[in-house]
Amino acid sequence: MSKCRSCGEAAVIDLPRHNANFCAEHFQQLCRRQLSKAITDFEMFTTDDRILVAVSGGKDSLALWDMLIDAGYQTDGLYVGLGIGDYSSDSGAITRRFAEERGLKLLEVDIRNEHGFDIPTAAGVSGRSPCSACGLSKRHIFDEVTQREGYDVLATGHNLDDEAAVLFGNTLRWDVEYLRRQAPVLPAGNGFGKKVKPLVRLTEREMAAWCVVRRIDYVVEECPMAVGNKHLSYKDALNALDSTSPGTKASFYLGFLDRIRPLLEDSASITAPGSCPRCGAPSATSEEACAFCRLIETTSGHEPIPVRMVLNKKARKLFDAQWGSQHGD
Ligand code: Q46
Ligand code: ZN
Ligand code: ZN
């Protein structure tokens, strides 16, 4: 049995990137330190700020909410019902239970009830990929609720693996504009609220372990619409490198934050000179409706398209294995 590096008691997790094993207590201490370093290094928020945490029912966002409460911050949660079949029903139920058991305030937006469409239908009708329709809708709703309800900042559960995968993709394409905007903090401005990613120094595996030690129940299944997206293949590639040289993934991303980002600092803000004539959200121009309003226009009121129908062959096979083929034809 391996021993904790700090106290010598039995370890519950090995962290090859730190070349050490930790007991539950010292593992939590390490996570708290990494969280606190990200919050202070990037001036994300203080204990005076009201923070809205975007929660999906997955390990990262629930761990983030738990860690912020544990660290004494003022937080409420925001759950967006995306209408992705059983995956959404399960994640909604788990998120509500998490909040209820801890007496926390959870705001909810159900896209179908409030905007007349769901993500599979939006993907089927608009021709956008599911993740593009979903990302666009979430960004719009997160921003709208943060500002309407007067929160100082919106926090999301993007972890080190997510950010390293995005960085890998941006670097492979040498997409300089995206590299400029890839930061753990997006300041408020141009009509947008402040957004932060406090988990950027913690990995996916560490967040799963945090949930286990803290007995947090989360949706284990991945979103069925994620199958085949490039982001996952970038994650796999980085994990393959990391398994032969532990720490590669972390040094790739954290090195970018330390050494490359400061060189790009001045260009981080998104420009939105106009505002949408329908909803008032910041937009590239004031003549045309914003992308979210255009998505509502093309998809709202359309007969719901089941998840399975908008998946490609490979995704459908996995979906059937996970959720059963009775859902959705
Ligand atoms: S929920 Fe939405 Fe993700 Fe599902 S459709 Fe894609 S973006 S994979 S975080
Ligand atoms: Zn210990
Ligand atoms: Zn709009």
Q: Order of strands in the sheet with the most strands?
A: 5-4-3-6-8-7
Identify the overall geometry.
Answer: globular
Helix content: 40-55%
Distance between the termini: 50 Å
Oligomer: single chain
Percent range for β-strand residues:
5-15%
Number of helical regions: 13
- How many strands, which pairing sense, and closed or not: the largest β-sheet? 6 strands, mixed
Residue windows where pLDDT falls under 50 for at least 5 positions = none
β-strand number: 10
Task: Compile the SSE list and pairings.
Blueprint: E1 13-15, E2 20-22, H1 24-41, E3 50-54, H2 59-70, E4 74-81, H3 85-102, E5 106-110, H4 111-115, H5 119-126, H6 130-148, E6 153-155, H7 160-172, H8 176-181, E7 185-186, E8 194-196, H9 204-213, H10 230-244, H11 248-264, E9 274-275, E10 282-283, H12 291-299, H13 313-323
Parallel strand pairs: 3-4, 3-6, 4-5, 6-8
Antiparallel strand pairs: 1-2, 7-8, 9-10
Bound molecules: Fe4 H S5 and zinc ion (2 copies).
What labels describe this entry?
329 residues, alpha/beta, two-stranded antiparallel ribbon, 49% helix, globular, binds Fe4 H S5, binds zinc ion
Describe this structure in words.
The protein has 329 residues and is an alpha/beta fold. The protein has 13 helices and ten strands. It has helices spanning 24-41, 59-70, 85-102, 111-115, 119-126, 130-148, 160-172, 176-181, 204-213, 230-244, 248-264, 291-299, 313-323, and strands spanning 13-15, 20-22, 50-54, 74-81, 106-110, 153-155, 185-186, 194-196, 274-275, 282-283. It has a six-stranded mixed beta sheet, sandwiched between helices. Strands 1-2 form a two-stranded antiparallel ribbon. The protein has a two-stranded antiparallel ribbon with strand order 9-10. The mean pLDDT is 92. Bound molecules: Fe4 H S5 (Q46) and zinc ion (2 copies).
